[in-house]
Amino acid sequence: MVKCFVVGCKTGYKSNKEKVGCFKVPKDEKLLTLWQKLIPRGDKTLSSNDHVCSKHFKEEYIIKTKTILDQAYPLKIWKLTAQAVPTLNLWNNGEQETKMRNSKSKKNIDVEQWKKTLESHYISPQPLQLPDNHKIVELANSVDKLAADVEMADPQPENDNKDSANEPIIIEQVVQPVIEAVDNAMFDPTKAKLPSSWRWCSGCEHYQEDDPTANNITAVRFGVVNNTKVILKMITIAGEEVSYTINGALIKPPEFLPKSIGKVEELTDLLSRFDSANICGGFKFDVGKALSPSLKKATVKEYGERRSKLCIRILLKGSTCYRCQHLNNLAVGESLKPNKMDGLLERSQTLTNENRLLKRKLDRKERLIKELKQEIKDSRKLTANCQIPSRARINRYRVTVDKKFAKNFTRPKWALTSFPGSGVTWTRQLIEGVTGIYTGTVYGPDEPSIIDGKHYGNQADFNCGCTILIKDHGYPETYPFLGSSSVYENRGILLLRNPIEALFTSAHYLWSDNKQKGTVSPDLFKGPKWDDYVSNATIEWAEHADRWIQNIRNGTVIFYEKLLLEDTEAELNRLFRAINFMPIDPERMRCTLSHKSRSDLKRTKKPTAPLTSKHYSKLMSSIERVQVSLRRKGWPLLPLHLYNLEKIGKDED
């Protein structure tokens, strides 16, 4: 036990049999400094490893109970309040007594003489002889910030003899009462009668530990197993709860032993029954024979003995539990029929496990059904708003705005051809939205994705026959990417756009390293390089359109400006009639038209520059050439009324 730091205090010494609680020195530096001033010692300084016993603290500084649910429970380890300081019995030394008591004399104490005694470096004062004529003076409990509880005796009556007036006043130690359990404790377990060979086991003391579970006490019974002294049985009492331990293993309380107690008499009866109960002898086997793998797996070794892993360990009668006996019979080739109660218990446990598994399965199914219902609800909501994103395959629920591939080899190859920069990407979005079938491309996976990197049509094989149209910027007679001149069999849709818009769009794409939404500075739209580009681009625009107009036998021409600015639905219906894709789902058409202004891959800004008169002349010549070809073919003419010619600067050379 730790020793008290206060000089003269006997707490913790072998000669002192009194049990007194001790407290650790506070961790707070300010409070520690105050304690050091209150408990000075010449040989050492108070440190964090020292202790001070409860004799030196007032009752209001000590916490003895803990309130749980409005009920006070005694603390096995008492605790100090946050501002507790030692104030009692700090100014004695050695064997001298420190309690101040008055003599039988009616005379009183000289205050100044008593104060000087306290200030004399805590040396035990000699008895003081006081004059007879001093008056009674009431002293404070602290002198010069040193706390000391002093008890002053009342003056003697007037009729006392005169000899008593000359008796000295002796300062002696204030004897504090022994710390006992609080009055409201329900019962003291140690008052129960222990069977022979049982002993109460005192636990380790952790000072100032405030833990409700610390209020427990343990009784043990020792025995000898294989020449080894071990704890055979043990009970632990925490409040009213009782736990049982057999051979170091915590067991489930059997039916003949209670789980809780409330009186000393109940504890005495419990100890008697637990002591008389038999410990299961375990699994007996011939040590000369090797255990089979199944028996070895079903048993566990303890203190040199084997027992079933399901052994109940404690028996009211008999020496071996059913489970260990069953293993014994199996070892000798016999089989033991379980009694009805054990059979019912085993059946109950099996049903409990099965019910637990079924409950888990039902919970998983309920979660799945809940998720499916939420997905259906979200799908319906998004379908109404036309906000469901495209998918490569049909989802588990058919939604009208989903997109997919057609069945392989069910769609003929149809070209969707245009001069670069004519808006074919946006047109593909419209076509896919109405038909629900992806469009492909002759350029394969290297083609930039249409919608946020999730356009699956670019991944399709050119010869799969699973796309509605195939993007192609080349000429109809030669196919450098395919090596064939008749892959489309004269089927195609020609997309035409104002050549001025196509010219600038293509320039931004080419000069920004082929970025789908890239732009360049308008400063590049001037000089010899720009002049050469305009001359070549205007010729290529007309040449591309003229060759496809002459090559296409099944198909038609559509105009970007009509799709964007006029009747989009009429222009799309003309396209679908040309490729024999009828009828059209009106709901898909409505949804697509409501989102035709989406700009996944459109440039937010497209810088331009005025064109010179020479540029204008070449552009008009190309437009006229295409108009003539359209007129000869009998197809609709270019919608010049929708073309924006504000970029033309006629006065510039």
From TrEMBL:
This is THAP-type domain-containing protein. The lineage of its organism: Eukaryota, Metazoa, Ecdysozoa, Arthropoda, Crustacea. The keyword Coiled coil applies. Keywords: Coiled coil, DNA-binding, Metal-binding, Zinc, Zinc-finger. Transmembrane segments: none annotated. PANTHER family: SULFOTRANSFERASE, WSCD FAMILY MEMBER CG9164. One of its GO terms (molecular function) is zinc ion binding. Residues 1-89 form the THAP-type domain. Belongs to the WSCD family. Residues 341-385 form a coiled coil. It comes from the Eukaryota. Gene3D superfamilies: P-loop containing nucleotide triphosphate hydrolases, THAP domain. InterPro entries: P-loop_NTPase (IPR027417), Sialate-O-sulfotransferase (IPR051589), THAP_Znf (IPR006612), THAP_Znf_sf (IPR038441).
